[in-house]
Specification:
mainly beta; 4-stranded mixed beta sheet; elongated; 17-stranded antiparallel beta sheet
């Protein structure tokens, strides 16, 4: 997305503010909440040399030792635990001041630092999925495909900082620098259990858990300038250039599903890869950099103002995912800690000679199609005019923007590209009914490009809704015709009464949809 942050350039006087808050969540109270037990921060080094297959490890001693080392390098924590919830809290401090430097030239500084911690959770959720099995009529029939109880807990920590420096070397020239840093860490844990009729029979109880950690970081450096040129003609030049780096790491996303069978009088615990995903661990990394530049020049011509400008933005992203699954040669008895603690070679089996015995073991099942590279370049130029028309109380603001888009994604399976030149007109009429009352009419054409996530053919599992989400590299950009009407009355300073109406016509809007005919539930994006 695009963010436009404006701060006061030159504070009137020295300021220092501090704030803090504590909040109480009645949904959690002071009870323990579900928490993600400690996962791995990165893939174990022993894995980088490759993981032997179980078939080769059963008869080859060197392969058996490598598979044993890799399997033991992954810690056994595969299910959430309960921990006491810390109090929700936030702190912030901000400073602003103005100094005279270099012979009385003003230098302004605004700086802030903030920290926020928030815990959420619930113990009484439900998740259901139902399928319409008959025609849409008064006799609609819904069959239950999933009905699960839901317990979840999450924790988010945010750290942010901003520094804005402004300098006016001349009364008609101003320069500024913005630095922004933000870091967020989120952990999430969920456990669900109940009926899964689409895969299991009555009396079989499905159980699944997930633990997720997301680390996001953003660093931005922006330079900007405002200049009044050519003496007293008030020709105004504005520019800014911004470089941003963002990253998102998702280390050790863990999903564990099983079911228990109570139909035979005694409870049996089963892990069935043919019915649902094996116990799985994901490691994901995304990095993105962008460079954007904007320039505009406003020239007064009589009672009108003509403005021209251009912009250029380049963005590139790299996404990588590696996936590891557990295989098993021993049965599951309902104790996750004991099951995943029994990783690698069974003690003493190396001395006994081949075939070697394993408990559960790790295998890498990374799919190259789940990695992608993407780039987007957007260049634009515009011209506009703001002028009174035949009547002194009628004002016209209009212009034309030409925007070129080159967006592509590279993937092992499918590539996609959008290359378009769009002309985007805008017309605004403002009629002053009285000194404090206006009537407005406006038309403008805008566009929306698919996000990289929507565009990239990357398959990810949404554990909340039990669906696969797949991007579509054949998407086209959306064009929108916008019509607006507005009456506004500025009753007193700071007060407004307005009535507005708008109409929008979308060409090729991007929507989520269920993929027809998919064996497993899949959501994708379509125009």
């Amino acid at each position: 997305g695009n963010i436009n942050i404006g701060t006061r350039a030159f504070p009137d006087h020295s300021t220092l503010t501090f704030s803090t808050s504590l909040t109480y969540d009645s949904q959690i109270g002071f009870d323990d909440v579900l928490h993600a037990s400690g996962g791995l921060e990165h893939i174990p080094d022993v894995v980088e040399g490759g993981i032997p297959s179980i078939a080769s490890a059963l008869t080859n001693k060197e392969a058996a030792e490598r598979l044993d080392a890799a399997s033991r390098a992954f810690n056994p924590g595969m299910v959430p635990v309960r921990q006491s919830a810390p109090v929700n809290q936030s702190y912030s401090v901000a400073y602003g001041n103005r100094f005279d430097v270099l012979g009385g030239r003003p230098l302004g500084i605004v700086a802030s630092l903030s920290y926020d911690q928030d815990v959420t959770g619930h113990d009484t959720g439900t998740v259901g999925q139902y399928e319409l099995t008959g025609p849409v009529s008064t006799n609609d029939l819904l069959s239950t495909e999933m009905n699960l109880t839901d317990v979840a807990g999450g924790r988010e920590e945010l750290l942010g900082g901003l520094v804005n420096l402004s300098f006016r070397p001349h009364p008609k020239h101003e320069l500024g620098v913005n630095l922004i840093y933000s870091r967020a860490e989120e952990t999430f844990a969920r456990m669900q259990s109940g009926q899964l009729p689409r895969n299991l029979i009555r009396g079989e109880i499905f159980e699944t858990s997930v633990m997720q950690q997301i680390e996001r970081e953003l660093r931005t450096l922006q330079g900007r300038g405002e200049h009044v040129l050519f003496g007293n003609r008030n020709v105004r030049l504005e520019w800014n250039s911004t470089y941003t780096q963002t990253s998102q790491g998702e280390p050790d996303l863990r999903i564990f599903s099983s079911h228990r069978d109570t139909t035979g009088g005694e409870t049996r615990y089963i892990i069935a890869p043919s019915l649902y995903t094996r116990p799985t661990r994901y490691f994901r990394d995304m990095s993105e950099s962008s460079w954007s530049n904007d320039f505009s020049l406003a020239v007064p011509i009589g009672s009108a103002t003509v403005k021209i400008g251009s912009s250029y933005m380049m963005k590139d992203r790299q996404f990588r995912e590696r996936r590891f699954e557990y295989g098993q040669t021993t049965g599951y008895t309902g104790n996750p800690d004991g099951f995943f603690g029994n990783a690698g070679l069974v003690e003493g089996s190396l001395e006994a000679g081949a075939p070697y015995e394993f408990g559960n073991y790790i295998q890498e099942v990374t799919q190259r199609g789940n990695n992608y590279d993407a780039e987007q370049t957007v260049g634009a130029g515009f011209a506009m005019i703001d002028m009174p028309l035949f009547l002194s109380n009628l004002r016209f603001i209009g212009g034309l923007r030409a925007e070129y888009t080159d967006q592509f994604v590279l993937n092992a399976n499918r590539n996609g590209r959008i290359e378009e030149l769009d002309l985007l007109p805008s017309i605004n009429l403002v009629y002053a009914l009285t000194d404090n009352m206006n009537a407005r009419l406006a038309y403008g054409r805008t566009l929306a490009r698919p996000s990289f996530r929507e565009f990239a053919p990357f398959n990810s599992y949404d554990f909340i809704n039990s669906v696969q989400i797949i991007g579509n590299p054949e998407l086209e950009r959306t064009l929108v015709n916008n019509f607006d009407a507005r009456w506004e009355w500025f009753m007193r300073t700071g007060e407004i009464l307005a009535v507005s109406a708008f109409y929008k016509d979308f060409s090729n809007p991007i929507e989520q949809m269920l993929s027809p005919g998919a064996v497993n539930r899949e959501i994708t994006y379509q125009n």
